[in-house]
Amino acid sequence: MTEFIAPLQNLMDHFRRLPGIGGKTAIRLAFSVMELPEQEAEDFAAAILAAKREIHLCRECCNVSTEDVCPICADEGRDHSTVCVVEDAKAVLSFERVHDYRGVYHVLGGTLSPMNGIGPDHLHIRELLHRLGDDTVKEIIVATNPTVEGEATAMYLARILRPFGVTVSRLAYGIPVGGDLEYADEITLHRALEGRRPIG
Amino acid sequence: MTEFIAPLQNLMDHFRRLPGIGGKTAIRLAFSVMELPEQEAEDFAAAILAAKREIHLCRECCNVSTEDVCPICADEGRDHSTVCVVEDAKAVLSFERVHDYRGVYHVLGGTLSPMNGIGPDHLHIRELLHRLGDDTVKEIIVATNPTVEGEATAMYLARILRPFGVTVSRLAYGIPVGGDLEYADEITLHRALEGRRPIG
User: Were B7 and a residue from A50, A62, A70, B104 both cysteine, which residue would form a disulfide, CB within 3.0 to 4.6 Å?
Assistant: First the structure.
């Protein structure tokens, strides 16, 4: 045996294909799955299938949901006039953890990336524009990540949203709370200066 | 949605239970599985079940195997008089990668650990002793890890193997090749001195 036995190699390859999982981690994970109790391995396999089969995109906001319309969009208590546009479902979770935002979301499903062949049609932009049809939405907060692609996507959205007459805002940039000026990169410092606000 | 939707949470929990997978990694992995093509998710689930169902322990060496006797034990070209005793199947792979060792193996399935309630009966020691029944084995190389438990297991094995009249050896300790003396811990240096050999 100069290689892994086939079922182990196969499982390892599957783990390896997941993001951030290297060769050694894939080996460790495959071995640990092999050592799981039978019932737990079955539950794990079923959980993978369920995640694929039971999760759809919300008809309104394109967030992941087991329902046709996700609980956030279905919640009458939330402010449906404010839509926070994020790249993915993980960002929704980050905002929800803050317990501060009472508006709704729109999940783009990525960012524009011409280099990788991802244009506006690959994102849920059409669905976003569709939501502007009935005058409910007053403000759109573009909360894409502060990366090159996230910025480009924000710029693109600002441009195509202009004709709709809604307020389009962008998250504030600056020094993260608890961060140290010494370690802040130049662009962040530049943005922090630019966005300075009067105090007192 | 202040929490994950159920199928996602469930999948995340399964990932979380694997060794070395923390909360954030579990989230990332669960999301990436959700985004897999349907076919690939099905293959992944099947791979988990196959790893449980198709892999058994070799009747001879207790290594993982899809056959009753693993390819190494079944290989007539290998030296069946030398048995390298390792903690787990991963260690077998490490040795096999060296392409230098032509003997066979015996997988203990762990180390003695009274603290965790793991005694000799929990390891494949009985199976090892059984292999000494027909005078084939002449040398046993104890290759448990140089940890407290690995050492204790090596000592225990040396003691119970003595009556069988086989040579029992232990892997050499020392400075790892490419390592720097500056960073070697005291015990390793002590062992390296103790195990010094004449050169030239």
Answer: A50
Q: Which residues contact B63 (CB under 8 A, 6 or more apart)?
A: A1, B57, B70, B72, B73, B89, B92, B105, B107
Same domain, A179 and A133: yes
A9, A12, A14: best to mutate for the B interface, most B CBs within 10 A: A14
Q: Percent helix, strand and coil across chain B, each rounded to 5?
A: 50, 15, 40
- State the amino acid at position B50 in one-letter form: A
Which member of B4, B6, B51 has the closest CB to residue A33? Answer: B51
**Cβ–Cβ under 8 Å, residues A118 and A111:** yes
What is the interface pTM, i.e. ipTM, of the complex?
A: 0.74
Q: Tell me whether residue A1 is in a domain.
A: no
For the segment B14-28, what is each residue's pLDDT rounded down to a tens digit? Answer: 999 999 999 889 999
Backbone dihedral angles phi then psi of residue A47, each to the nearest 5 degrees: -65, -35
Domain range holding A12?
6-54
Cβ–Cβ of B47/A5 closer than 8 Å? no
In terms of pTM, does the model score above 0.90? no
**CB nearest A41 (choices: B6, B10, B49):** B49
pLDDT digits (tens, 9 = 90+) for A86-122: 999 988 988 888 888 899 999 999 999 988 899 999 9
Task: Verify that A30 and A84 share a domain, yes or no.
Answer: no
Q: What is the CATH number of the domain that holds A42?
A: 1.10.8.420
